[in-house]
Amino acid sequence: MMLTLSQREMEVVRRVLNREPNEAEWKLVDALWSEHCSYKSSKVFLRSLPSTGPNVVMSVEDWQDAGAVDVGDGWALVLKVESHNHPSAIDPFNGAATGVGGILRDIISKGARPIALLDMIRVGRLDQKGKWLVKNIISGIGFYGNSVGVPVVGGELSFDETYNDNPLVDVACVGVVKKDSIVPSVVKESGLKLVLVGFTGLDGLGGASFASRKLSGLDEIGAVQIADPFAGKVIIDLTLEVAKDVSAIKDLGGGGLAVAVTEMANGLGAVVNLEKVPLRYRDLLPEEIIISETQERMLFAVKPEKVEAVCSKFQELNYPCAEIGEISTEPTIRFLYKGETVAQLPSDLLLNPPLVVWPAERKERSNSDSRPVELKEAIVRVMTHPDLVSKEWAYSQFDYEVGTSTVVKPGDGDSAVVELPNGRLLALKGDANQDLCSEDSYECGKAIVAETYRNLATVGARGIALVDHLQFGDPRKPEVYHDFIEAVRGISEASKFFSIPVVGGKVSFHNEDKEGNPIKPTPLVVMAGLVEGKLGKGKPQEGSLVLLGLT
Amino acid sequence: MRTAVLKFPGTTCEIDVAKALKKVGAEVEVVQFNKFDPDRYGGVVIPGGFSFGDYIRAGTIAANSEAMKRVKDMADEGKLVLGICNGFQILVESNILKGALLPNLNLRFITRWVRVKVRRRDTQFTKDSKETLFMPIAHMEGRYFLDDEELASRLSLFQYVDESGLPTPEANPNGSILNIAGISNDAGNVVGLMPHPERASFSTISPDGSTDGLEILKVFGK
Amino acid sequence: MYRVELIVINKDGVRDPEGETLKRYVLDPEVPNRISSARVGKFIELLVDASSKEEAERLVAKLAEEKRLYNPIVHKIRVRAERLEDGSS
Amino acid sequence: MYRVELIVINKDGVRDPEGETLKRYVLDPEVPNRISSARVGKFIELLVDASSKEEAERLVAKLAEEKRLYNPIVHKIRVRAERLEDGSS
Ligand SMILES: Nc1ncnc2c1ncn2[C@@H]1O[C@H](COP(=O)(O)OP(=O)(O)O)[C@@H](O)[C@H]1O
């Protein structure tokens, strides 16, 4: 059994339970207490980000879901960003594609219709492997986004050797929903039925135990997730159709059913009958069903009398849908298989891992690699850097016109602009700056917020909300942790300065190369804004160039 | 005209098409493929997207559906049938229109605004339309092919052209024979094309404010 | 039980850009003059319940035709069945 | 001259949405219970100049690996060579 829990954490579990958990229970705790799901190393700092404001409809509760802001006429905008870095490093096509699928399901979990995607890609040296990575990442994003009919309206494509082994694939999505129809991710009453749609398979299983049992020598298999955008599209369409009939929606991401059920119960309890879970492979073990990370699945909490109505929609398209359990009053999460208890743990324990604060230390910076450069050489170097050449080959592979609302298209402006259902124009942009961040992460945190805002301003928009994504190396390394803390401080300060609520975000640690060196710190922000007055669009025909600010 | 917009699982453009059809005054209904009653409609539009994921080949699985047998009946009765992008692929895969749509020559998905020239006036869709139309394409498998060039030329309805109206190789985004962007049957009531007229129906999103797509769609408004 | 391979490939005379690109940009620079042709197609493998190799092949060929798993204007197919040892029939 | 087939297909245990969709929406409705599995992959056919079947297969397997014609994390390959009668070697 492979666990990521520390000795100290295991002690806490034993003490609270006053017994030794069984294997399935360890895996359950391991999934819920993972950095990915629990934010145990980052939560303390994330609390400093300003998450409220007059326009905030739904703020981020415990950093688990997308937030929403008011965009007028009864409409709310839901916004989220996420990365799929590690899967993209080993299987760039499916890794990037499943990243798109994941972010889309976050948006539909709120009952919102996804209307636009952004992709921010960072890869290393453009050697044979680098080219293979970019090419497949871009086609993977297009494959999923195009197939489900959500336009990819903008993004970034940047190159830096720090990403040689660890490319960064960030995707952001915005969706729209009537303010009074937002669906929560958590339940408030017991007696609701848990309904799961989609098959469960081997995908994302830690691998070790399964591989050694059945597929000797193929340890990575479980870790590979294959994208199925067709299933993704069915899920999007039908989830939005049944949203009015359900009490809560949760998508299944990292940690699978274990995490979705526990977080949905939110302190109440749940009973899940694992034999009712529709399986793609008959011989999955009960504890594997609990933590499988198969894509294109959703969990609904549904009033008993509505279950039939919800499932019949899916069954009509031959898509599996099953009632697998219910929400209980007793605050315990119980997984049963044919009546036998597989795992039984207090909700409280699962939802509250011991938080950690690692030692932090500022790294000595050396400015040694600066040398005098000739102006001509500098200009040529800058103008031919792959970061700055036309990205048309990339964005022309995305269907950025679907939805008939993309007003400012990729390549046409510094921000993308899409038309909202109420006729208002929404500007979107994502930015990061790994070079500045490796110099001074605090200044960089401020600078990327300001840069994103400037990009919105070029189309005449004022920022209304942002989401951030904090990508760093191993938090147990003091310099890495220091940079992380400082970046959050910078983003927080700038967001407060501009009065822009941070309505969501994500943290991705452990981004490092094969030798264990961390990537340059790469916090990233995505901002949404509304165009006020006239849209700034198109190429200027005449006029003077005016430069603002000190050079 | 009462017009059905036929939705398969994986169709992505049904809302856009319905929006554009309403603009020309058509009475539009988006219909699920398994609930399609052709007798209720004077015309049908099969919109773009990735029906059944476009697995095996674009349009193949949808072409096997009952719904497409009914579309065939409508076509035979002389009703209006329009297939856009994936809809064109489905019409070809169902043998309602002749030929094949192969992967683009550059093997990549391509989004781009293109100009097409109207080559025939004997269809209800084009009998009084403008000479050239500006519309976007967005597809992976749009290279029109037919093993009989003479026939292809006869069916050819829209042809990719450059700024000066010539069907040059540079104007051909995907390698279609004879720069074919769309075809019609001999009777002129069934049309399939790769460009998206519904995306060229709103001046806010077209690069030059034009709305040439309406030229093709307006027949449903009658 | 039979394992049946259905291979769908462009007819001779229909361009195959994937094969051409593979040959020109990947294979020829690596092993010049060793590879005189490259064609790329689709591979479909089915496990079929049938009473003989011929029946399995006939069934798959019929399905390919009727369900248009290939487009006869551009593609040709090859069907090959092989009996599986532990099959039930 | 050898005709070499290179088949690239998802590993066992790695799911194959294309095969699943084909089975669920096309094959099962047409011939229920006759087909127990459908997998879809890529088919590459090369004409290779080599001195033996083994050498031809080795060359193609090496090219597949080095030129990333498949991703070993996700795919497995099969390589099969066959001597052509009128071949030059
Ligand atoms: N990965 C990508 N996906 C989609 N659009 C992209 C991507 N990378 C760049 N773009 C688009 O290409 C255009 C130019 O990009 P870039 O050169 O990075 O501009 P900027 O320096 O202003 O950010 C922008 O419209 C941007 O949204």
UniProtKB/TrEMBL annotation, chain B:
Q: Which InterPro entries match?
A: Class_I_gatase-like, PRibForGlyAmidine_synth_PurQ
**Alphabetized UniProt keyword annotations:** ATP-binding, Cytoplasm, Glutamine amidotransferase, Hydrolase, Ligase, Nucleotide-binding, Purine biosynthesis
UniProt entry tagged with the keyword Electron transport: no
The listed locations are: Cytoplasm
Question: Under which EC number(s) is this enzyme classified?
Answer: 6.3.5.3, 3.5.1.2
Q: Which GO terms describe its biological process?
A: 'de novo' IMP biosynthetic process
Give GO MF terms, alphabetically.
ATP binding; glutaminase activity; phosphoribosylformylglycinamidine synthase activity
Which domain of life does the protein's organism represent? Answer: Archaea
SUPFAM superfamilies, per database record: Class I glutamine amidotransferase-like
Q: Which PANTHER family match?
A: PHOSPHORIBOSYLFORMYLGLYCINAMIDINE SYNTHASE SUBUNIT PURQ (PTHR47552:SF1)
Subunit structure of this chain's protein: Part of the FGAM synthase complex composed of 1 PurL, 1 PurQ and 2 PurS subunits.
- The name this protein carries in UniProt is Phosphoribosylformylglycinamidine synthase subunit PurQ
What species is given as this protein's source? Metallosphaera tengchongensis
Gene that encodes it: purQ
TrEMBL record, chains C, D:
Q: Which Pfam families match?
A: PurS (PF02700)
Please name the InterPro entries in this protein's record. Answer: PurS (IPR003850), PurS-like_sf (IPR036604)
Domain of life of the organism encoding this protein: Archaea
Broadest EC class assigned to this enzyme: ligase
Using the record, list the residue span of the signal peptide; answer none if the entry has no such feature.
none
Indicate whether Cytoplasm appears among the record's keywords: yes
Q: What is this protein called?
A: Phosphoribosylformylglycinamidine synthase subunit PurS
Organism of derivation: Metallosphaera tengchongensis
Gene it is expressed from: purS
